[in-house]
Write a structure and sequence with these properties.
The complex is a heterotrimer of chains A (about 325), B (about 290) and C (about 500).
Chain A: H1 2-28, H2 34-39, H3 45-55, H4 61-73, H5 87-122, H6 127-141, H7 144-158, H8 174-208, H9 211-218, H10 223-248, H11 250-260, H12 266-275, H13 279-307
Helix pairs in contact in A: 1-13, 5-6, 5-8, 5-10, 5-11, 5-13, 6-8, 7-8, 8-10, 8-11, 10-13, 11-12, 12-13
Chain B: H1 2-8, H2 21-27, H3 29-51, H4 84-120, H5 122-137, H6 140-151, H7 155-183, H8 185-192, H9 197-233, H10 245-252, H11 261-288, H12 290-293
Helix pairs in contact in B: 2-3, 3-4, 3-11, 4-5, 4-7, 4-9, 5-7, 6-7, 7-9, 9-10, 9-11, 10-11
Chain C: H1 5-12, E1 35-40, H2 55-64, E2 66-67, E3 69-71, E4 77-79, E5 82-86, E6 92-97, H3 111-123, E7 136-143, E8 146-151, H4 158-161, E9 168-169, H5 172-178, E10 194-200, E11 204-209, E12 223-228, H6 232-241, E13 246-247, H7 255-260, E14 264-270, E15 276-279, H8 289-298, H9 301-307, E16 314-315, H10 339-345, E17 350-356, H11 359-373, E18 378-384, H12 386-394, E19 400-401, H13 416-419, H14 433-444, H15 448-465, E20 468-470, E21 472-473, E22 475-481, E23 484-485, E24 501-502
Parallel strand pairs in C: 1-12, 17-18, 17-19
Antiparallel strand pairs in C: 2-9, 3-4, 5-6, 6-8, 7-8, 10-11, 11-12, 13-22, 14-22, 15-19, 15-20, 16-21, 23-24
Helix pairs in contact in C: 8-10, 14-15
Classes of the chains: A mainly alpha (about 325), B mainly alpha (about 290), C alpha+beta (about 500).
């Protein structure tokens, strides 16, 4: 097992290297000049040249890459081109908002998925099963930005039940914070319900077939008790693994939702930075997302492997 | 898309021959239903020029913002007086091909990498799989947006971007199956007899790839349509006046107060289409790999 | 993403209803207290006028900082921190400053402060104000309330420049106190009606009333909150839900419904910019003047105004808008579309028109395309992502490029950089020595009558030569809840909150 972990960690290194090269090349080879974005209406050839020099953009690409990697080695992600803030600060400011959105969305998707998955498993093959599956597949089929704008239109503009966009930190005003996160979380989480439901269902089915469940029933335990106390507990463990993967992918998932709801998160920052050609910020965010994805994958594979003895690590 | 199948590949059973289509349809009613739905969508896309009551690009400023069920315009008109029904029908002609080209890029690109990696093994495998891992680690939508930003907004580049994002799934899938097949006795025996790799790949590996790939393609098609709609919604995919569903939601969102149908109807169209593909993929997977249904 | 293009949309949302200067509405006696929330079309990058380059930043600055000069709603230069001025000597401007003014951190405003500020703008490493102040050789402190600006060369536009960022006065003590983070947190740095409280990027920016504001009795409001909302439709929604009180721009299509709604106020006045597209005179096909003229002749501005701008605004005949003293409507060179005339001038050629994916820009492009087709001119629309498009247009890699200009108070700001040989915005590579001469003369002469003559001549020539095809003029708008009182509309698009109160 330790050799497996070590091997995986070792393999992550070339992957990380490839990701740095990939993101660097992609964003630097995109046409468009960050100096022009910075200068707005105050552009002049001298000002442009000055900014290129200040940001080191006049050096050859491979030199810029080496400088960036060198800084990375010291834990320095560089400074944002558009705001001159340290990239780590820029991301750090917005990460809590994205994490909150992602977690609440996850809660929503589980709140839908677990009951539906349980019903589908218990009444496997029946109409209830089909309907439950149908609902969740439906949820994943509706574009999340569409859910978002419909929710905004109905609940925010028409019925004034929820505020329109914006964000209030939890530490400042918990109630307002929750009011603001509800709509985006629903828009984001609905798609995830399908995967979580399917996993809940299949793992519940497997657990329900286990001997110890049959024994419990044979001993006279009520159906409800069996389901809720024994089966669900065990069935949820593999679901946790898939949830882990979703947490690893939190930044990517939030991109569109944050845009529609003007949520001040990292996903929206990534998109804006691409449009602004803010090289350093894009690079920083992609690295962060890739890293969290790889770590989440490793964790999940370990847990999954521990759970399922059929998987062996050679 | 990526996570579920990556976990499930370890459990793919090997079939020697692909299941016949007729067997599928007869034995699995869900597949028939789903297949019918998808076929209907393709039919609509194909016949759109014939069945659309109006030209989807015909601007008619005097007739704008008509409500659904207006005479001559069953679903009403948009802000420039274009018939909504025609635009939605033609939207299928845009979205479906885009989805399939994008998935095609993924299948071909990923398939080649997966085959090479699985068959050659050793260092090639190690190297190629690290490239695939890197691609997978890149947050998908952000990668697609960056690629389109680099290449320029438009449907063609959106297809390329989505296709590139889809490559890792197929690379892993094809590689996993290739690996398993490689270990089978008859393969090692045939190889020792001197059979050429090409023959082996063509006659034995590829037929066994068909089922899992077809399942994955159905699921990918749904996600590709969503991805293309998302890119168009962000202004990076189809441009005005192309009748693309995502782009129609983008422009329509501005009119939610006056005329919500402009955004809602294309949204429903996308949902139904993606649902059909997901449904098809799900039922195919059930049919072809019963063990996974648990 | 409509983020950046929103500025263009806003300027396409134009009108000239009435046209006269709009002074504030007064319903009863002003009430003190309350806060107003204002929508900004994009997030700011800095709160320091020195390195600022965005329009939205100026909106905030005018409420935190005072400038040496101000304008009234008819664009006339008025006293700001400068009480009176003597520009009889074109190389040495003498200013008498207001007395008894203190910055929000308590330090006094005086001549030395003026000198320090100007020098900071001229020499700061990240300063974007250098070219604005390039004609100023030095600032001399005569005494605490008198300064003399010694100029390198005569510059009739200097006072207008000092209305904007280059003339904004900051407390040097506050700048020093703020250190490297000053631009994110300029505590106590201004002398204006409101002072900085906090800035949570991408969420909100709050200002609060300056109790020691030198114009006693003002401001009425206790505070202002700014929110960056990048999408015009989102701005309208936020207005409707009451999340914002004031907006500067909404989509042209929504103006009619907002006007009709009694819970909102909509007013507009001609702004100072112009809209249209530039043609590259340095490469085929537009190195041929006849082809440029053909495009200008075939264009139907009236149709654009109606279909794209919903008749908000007026058609444009040149770079100088109706709000300016230099406006000349006597000769309309390219007025109504004349496809047959265009055909006889030049026809049968193709060119590419670059624009962004913003739906309004796309629709305008499609309209122009059909107008030109009627004259046998084929236009291909090339849609590009904003940063790409900006770079290509700035680097002369285009045939036609859709660029609008937000405008400057002084007509020089709408012409010199654009069409003087080698000008910073002269993407079209236009060069005409006569025009150069007129523009240079207009810059250095202080006689406004002579300047107007120069601009008339230059404008006629430029419009005729068509390195740029003008479509419409924009409006500056008040779009607010009906609780906002005494709001004065300024043509320069800036929202000045000193005298605004909330009922």
């Amino acid at each position: 097992m330790t050799t497996y972990v070590l091997r995986r960690l070792l393999l992550m290194l070339p992957v990380a290297f490839l990701v740095t090269v990939g993101v660097f090349m992609l964003i630097h080879l995109t046409p468009g000049d960050p100096a022009l974005i910075l200068l707005g209406e105050d552009r002049s050839p001298q000002a442009i040249a000055q900014i290129h020099q200040q940001l080191g953009l006049d050096k050859p690409l491979y030199v810029q890459y080496v400088i960036w990697i060198g800084r990375l080695g010291h834990g320095d992600l560089g400074r944002s081109i558009t705001t001159n803030q340290p990239v780590a600060t820029a991301i750090g400011e917005r990460l809590p908002a994205t994490i909150e959105l992602g977690l609440v969305a996850l809660l929503w998707s589980l709140a839908v998925a677990i009951p539906l998955g349980t019903i589908a498993a218990v009444r496997r093959g029946s109409l209830a099963d089909q309907v439950a599956t149908g609902i969740t597949v439906g949820g994943v089929s509706i574009p999340n930005f569409f859910i978002g704008i419909v929710l905004i239109f109905v609940l925010s503009v028409s019925f004034r039940m929820f505020p329109f966009g914006g964000y209030v930190p939890f530490t400042q005003d918990p109630l307002e914070n929750l009011r603001h996160v509800v709509l985006p979380a629903i828009a984001l989480g609905t798609a995830g319900a399908a995967i979580n439901m399917r996993f809940t269902r299949s793992s519940m089915i497997e657990v329900l077939n286990h001997d110890f469940i049959r024994t419990a029933r044979a001993k006279g335990a009520s159906w409800k008790r069996v389901v809720f106390i024994h089966a669900l507990k065990n069935a949820l463990i593999p679901v946790v693994t898939i949830v882990g993967l979703q947490i690893g992918g939190i930044i990517e998932g939030a991109v569109v939702t944050e845009t529609v709801f003007t949520w001040p998160g990292v996903g929206r920052l990534a998109v804006e930075s691409i449009f602004d050609r803010d090289y350093t910020v894009v690079q920083g965010i992609v690295l962060l997302a890739a890293f969290s994805y790889m770590v989440a994958n490793l964790m999940v594979d370990l847990v999954y492997g521990w759970l399922d003895p059929r998987i062996s690590y050679s | 898309m990526s996570t579920t199948s990556a976990l499930l590949t370890t459990e793919e059973p090997i079939r020697r021959t692909p299941i016949g289509v007729l067997v599928l349809l007869r034995g699995y009613p869900r597949v028939t239903a789903a297949g019918g739905l998808v076929a209907l969508l393709f039919l609509i896309a194909l016949l759109a020029p014939l069945i659309s009551p109006h030209d989807p690009l015909a601007v008619n400023a005097d007739d704008s913002y008509l409500r659904p069920f207006s005479p001559g315009h069953w679903l009403g008109t948009d802000e420039l007086g274009r018939d909504l029904l025609s635009r939605v029908l033609w939207g299928a002609r845009v979205s479906l091909p885009v989805a399939f080209v994008a998935v095609g890029v993924g299948v071909v690109g990923g398939g080649i990498i997966g085959l090479a990696s699985g068959y050659a093994g050793g260092f090639t495998d190690l190297l190629l799989m690290r490239v695939v891992d890197a691609l997978l680690a890149f947050p998908g939508l952000i990668l697609a947006i960056a690629i389109v930003a680099a290449l320029g907004p438009g449907l063609r580049n959106a297809m390329i971007a989505i296709g590139i994002v889809a490559i890792p799934v197929y690379a892993r899938l094809v590689r996993a199956i290739t690996l398993q097949l490689k270990q089978l006795e008859f393969v090692t025996a045939t190889r020792s007899l001197g059979a050429s790799p090409a023959r082996l790949i063509l006659r034995h590996i590829i037929p066994n790839l068909l089922n899992p790939v077809i399942v994955q393609v159905s699921l990918s098609a749904g996600f590709a349509i969503l991805a293309e709609a998302t890119l168009s919604f962000l202004g990076l995919g189809a441009q005005v006046p192309t009748p693309d569903w995502g782009q129609m939601i983008n422009t329509g969102a501005a009119f939610l107060a006056n005329d919500p149908w402009l955004a809602i109807i294309p949204g429903i169209a996308i949902s139904i289409t993606v649902y059909s593909f997901n449904f098809l993929g799900d039922s195919l997977r059930d049919a072809l790999d019963p063990r996974l249904r648990g | 993403m409509r983020r950046m293009a929103v500025a263009f949309v806003g300027l396409l949302a134009l009108a000239a209803c009435g046209g006269s200067s709009q002074s504030g509405s007064q319903n009863g006696t002003p009430k003190h207290g309350g806060t107003a929330t204002i929508a900004l079309e994009s997030e700011l990058r800095t709160l320091d006028p020195m390195d600022s380059s965005l329009l939205v930043e100026r909106e905030v600055f005018y409420n935190i900082y005072d400038s040496l000069f101000t304008i009234d709603s008819s664009l006339a230069i008025k006293p700001g921190l400068v009480k009176s001025w003597d520009t009889s000597d074109p190389m040495n401007y003498k200013f008498t400053l207001q007395t008894g003014v203190k910055y929000q951190d308590g330090t006094p405003f005086n001549a030395q402060s003026v000198k320090d500020n100007i020098e900071r703008y001229q020499t700061g490493a990240t300063s974007r104000r250098k070219s604005d102040l390039s004609s100023v050789a030095s600032v001399e402190v005569v005494d605490d309330s008198h300064v003399t600006f010694h100029l390198k060369k005569a510059n009739a536009t200097l006072l207008a420049t000092l209305v904007d960022r280059a003339g904004m006065m900051l407390s040097m003590a506050a700048v020093k106190q703020g250190g490297p983070n000053f631009s994110l947190s300029p505590v106590g740095a201004g002398s204006g009606p409101f002072q900085f409280v906090e800035w949570k990027r991408n969420d909100h920016l709050t200002l609060k009333k300056n109790p020691a504001y030198w114009k006693s009795g003002f401001p009425y409001l206790d505070g202002i909150t700014y929110r960056a909302i990048p999408d015009v439709n989102a701005i309208l929604s936020a207005l409707k839900t009451g999340d914002i009180d004031i907006a500067r721009v909404i989509a042209a299509k929504d103006v009619a419904s907002v006007k009709a709604d009694g819970s909102f106020i909509y007013k507009d006045t001609p702004a100072i910019g112009f809209n249209g597209f530039e043609l590259n005179t340095g490469a085929p096909p537009f190195n041929d003047p006849a082809k440029r003229q053909a495009v200008a002749e075939a264009l139907d501005k009236y149709q654009i105004l109606k279909n794209i701008n919903f008749n908000i605004g007026v058609v444009a005949y040149g770079p100088i808008p109706p709000s300016s003293w230099a406006y000349d409507s006597s000769e309309k060179i390219y007025d109504h579309a004349d496809a047959s005339k265009a055909k006889s001038t030049a026809t049968g050629f193709t060119f590419t028109f670059k624009t962004t994916s913003d739906p309004v820009n796309q629709q305008a492009a499609a309209l122009i395309q059909s107008q030109l087709a009627a004259a046998g001119i084929t236009m291909t629309i090339q849609t590009e992502e904003f940063a790409t498009y900006e770079q290509e247009c700035a680097n002369h890699q285009f045939q036609a490029c859709n660029v609008n200009w937000s405008g400057r108070i002084d007509p020089d700001g709408n012409m010199y950089a654009w069409w003087h040989t080698g000008g910073d915005f002269n993407d079209s590579l236009y060069s005409n020595s006569q025009v150069d001469g007129w523009l240079e003369d207009a810059r250095t002469t202080t006689d406004q009558g002579k300047r107007k003559q120069d601009y008339d001549s230059a404008q006629k020539q430029i419009v005729q030569d068509a390195p740029y095809v003008f479509t419409t003029f924009g409006v500056s708008a008040q779009i607010s809840s009906n609780k906002i009182q005494n709001f004065t509309l300024y043509p320069d698009l800036m929202i000045r909150m000193t005298e605004v109160w909330k009922s």
